[in-house]
Amino acid sequence: MDGEKSAGSPVPTAGGSAEEARARLVAVGVEMGTLAGRFAGATGLHATDVRALWVLGERDAPRTAGELGARLDLSSGAATRTVDRLERSGYVERVRDPDDRRRMRLRLTGEAEAVTGAFFGRVASVVGEAIEGFTEPELDVVARFLSLIHETLRESRDETGRRFSVTTKDHKE
């Protein structure tokens, strides 16, 4: 079908409005959530554990359970339970901070890197293929757009949560 990659998944060919960009961003978010869900199902992990593995694999990964909790917007108790589950699964280990022996740092295990690499490596490969036709200036615009959206969402999550909480309470009464 012209303009479609697969059934129910239209792909714009060129141009587009701000509304189309928002719709595509939502579609990408849904697809990433679906992939994360499949990974969780395949590994028996909790959805939060998958998010934690994803974040812990980043270049600027959190180094402590507290930093991980802050990054994922988890309470300290929820962050500790997440790390405990990942440690029991053999995906994360706690190691003493060489600069402060009272502090424990988080480190992905080789098994975690192998499992996430096998699953999400295909995703990275497909994304790499998809962007091959873009010029460097186009990719700079895409990267700038995604960075701005990421920062905007991160900065607004507290306010968004408060507004949603108030709205849902109003509807329950």
Describe it for me?
Helices cover 67% and strands 9% of the residues. It is mostly helical and 173 residues long. It folds into two domains: 17-131, Winged helix-like DNA-binding domain superfamily/Winged helix DNA-binding domain (Arc Repressor Mutant, subunit A); 134-173. The protein has a two-stranded antiparallel sheet. Strands 3-4 form a two-stranded antiparallel sheet. α1 (18-43) crosses α2 (47-56). The N and C termini lie far apart (48 Å). Mean pLDDT is 84; it is low at 1-10.
Core attributes:
173 residues, mainly alpha, 2 domains, two-stranded antiparallel ribbon, 6 helices
> SSE order in H/E notation?
EEHHHHEEHH
Structural class: mainly alpha
The N- and C-terminal alpha carbons lie at a distance of: 48 Å
CATH architecture of the largest domain: Orthogonal Bundle
Q: Major β-sheet, in short?
A: 2 strands, antiparallel
Q: State the helicity in percent bands.
A: 55-70%
The residue ranges in which pLDDT falls below 50 over 5 or more consecutive positions are 1-10
What top-tier CATH class of the largest domain fits best?
Mainly Alpha
Give the rounded overall mean pLDDT.
84
Structural domain count: 2
Number of strands: 4
Q: What shape does the CA trace take?
A: globular
Strand content: 5-15%
